[in-house]
Design a protein that fits this description.
Number of helices: 5
Oligomer: single chain
Shape: globular
Order of helices and strands: HHHHH
Strand content: under 5%
Length: about 150
């Protein structure tokens, strides 16, 4: 028989899941040229690798459908949408153009991080308390289809 997770363990798992999603998003953003290369070089654009990371997040969303909290689902959906839009924009740029976001633009990772819920503390209320806030904002979100351009 399976053990029931306590609220603390559940909160830690939710935080790990969100960290995993953010790490995948950072990798995709790196290859979309949204983040500087760790070696100190300029931004690197490799749309094939960026697409692979985005597709992995879409696969995670499909495989975890019905098993995520509202917050986890929201972070995952926002991250995928932001990365798909960034991919489309990067694929529309001409090869010689600079691929840096404008000063006012946020990278997909920054945009998804702003939607990230605060980490649950051991004595905090269950995640369902935050669900009402997330549900209210969910109605105003645009839905995008999976289209990576040409």
């Amino acid at each position: 028989m399976a053990e029931v997770q306590t609220n603390t363990e559940s909160g830690e798992m939710a935080q790990r899941f969100i960290e995993f999603v953010m790490m995948q998003a950072q990798n995709a953003a790196l290859f979309l040229g949204q983040l500087p290369h760790p070696g100190g070089e300029g931004p690197e654009v490799n749309l094939d690798i960026a697409k692979m990371f985005i597709d992995q997040l879409v696969m995670i969303r499909t495989k975890t459908r019905g098993n995520l909290s509202t917050d986890e689902q929201s972070v995952l959906n926002n991250t995928i949408s932001n990365l798909q839009m960034a991919f489309f924009e990067a694929s529309q740029q001409k090869p010689g153009e600079a691929n840096k976001p404008a000063a006012t633009e946020r990278t997909p990772v920054e945009a998804a991080a702003s939607a990230e819920p605060a980490p649950a503390s051991p004595g905090s209320a269950p995640e369902s308390a935050n669900a009402a806030e997330t549900d209210e904002s969910a109605g105003s979100k645009k839905k995008f289809t999976k289209s990576y351009g040409a």
